[in-house]
Specification:
Blueprint: E1 6-15, E2 22-32, E3 37-41, H1 48-55, E4 63-68, E5 71-72, H2 78-88, E6 89-92, H3 104-115, H4 125-131, H5 147-160, E7 165-169, H6 177-194, E8 197-202, H7 205-208, E9 213-218, E10 221-224
Parallel strand pairs: 3-8, 3-9, 6-7, 7-8
Antiparallel strand pairs: 1-2, 1-4, 4-5, 9-10
Helix pairs in contact: 3-4, 3-5, 4-5, 5-6
């Protein structure tokens, strides 16, 4: 069996102190295999976004361990941990989170340049914009794009990082149902081409059903589907 791309063991995340303390994750075990598609499903406050942040190295757990490609994040110094995140993990937020003064091309190029040249033709910004159907909008600013178009640029930017693990937080949450379906179809197509592992947080049952495995969370605990 393949080594998981991502694994959490006994992860606890707490915010605040004293009576106001909130346990966002409570002894969570989770893993995702290479090229797997996993949906984290739960209501607002269930812990699904916090789990994404833990997997992406954006939040350090209070207890427990997190591994990316078999390397424990807690055992690495800050610089090595940043390098591992940059080389292995990409994040797509609910809003596109594009740099507002950069064109679509520049947003994707920024991510591509951060990763170095490598296979320049495959990951060239214009090539990636063509894959998401937006080569004609390469010189447009985010304010000149529709919500669906901006999210497609965000996907191209994430792929430009050449991730082993793609994390998506409610990727269709700000889109109408038809546009959301097209974005999800595009995510499927990009995964087929580039072979990353996909973990997405959603509260939408219809979105979750598109995934191979559904992990249910409630009050910071995993109810089902962790492995």
């Amino acid at each position: 069996m393949s080594e998981p791309i991502a694994r959490c063991s006994g992860v606890v995340v707490q915010f605040g102190d004293g009576p106001s303390r909130v346990r966002a994750l409570d002894r969570v075990d989770f893993e995702a295999a290479p090229e797997e598609r996993v949906a984290l499903r739960g209501r607002s406050g269930s812990g699904k976004t916090t789990l994404l942040h833990v997997l992406g190295g954006l939040v350090e757990p209070s207890e427990g361990s997190v591994e990316i490609e078999g390397r424990a994040l807690g055992s690495l110094d800050d610089e090595v941990r940043r390098e591992l995140r940059a080389s292995s993990v990409a994040y797509v937020f609910q809003g596109s989170n594009l740099l507002p003064t950069f064109t679509a091309f520049e947003n994707v190029a920024f991510a591509a340049n951060a990763r170095g040249n490598g296979d320049a033709s495959r990951f060239a910004p214009l090539t990636l914009l063509q894959l998401v159907g937006l080569a004609s909008k390469a010189d447009h600013l985010p304010s000149e794009l529709s919500g669906g178009e901006a999210q497609r640029v965000a996907l191209a930017r994430a792929v430009a990082q050449r991730p082993k693990l793609m994390l998506c937080d409610e990727p269709t949450g700000q889109l109408d149902s038809d546009t959301g379906e097209r974005v999800l179809d595009l995510v499927d197509a990009l995964q087929d081409v580039f072979g990353f592992t996909l973990v997405a947080a959603t509260h939408d049952e219809d979105v979750a059903r598109r995934f191979e495995r559904i992990v249910e969370l409630e009050d910071g605990r995993v109810l089902a589907g962790a492995a």
